[in-house]
Amino acid sequence: MKLVATAKLLPTPEQDTSLLATLESVNAACNWLAERAFELKAADKYRLHGLHYRDLREKFGLSSQMAVRAISKVVESYKRDRTRKPTFKPHGAIAYDQRILSFKAMDRVSLLTISGRILLPYVAGSYHHARLEGVRGQSDLVLRKGKWFLYVTVDVPNGAPIDPEGWLGVDLGIRNLAVDSDGEKD
Question: What are the CA-CA distances from residue 183 to residues 91, 112, 164, 169, 180 (Å)?
Answer without folding.
Answer: 57, 62, 20, 10, 5
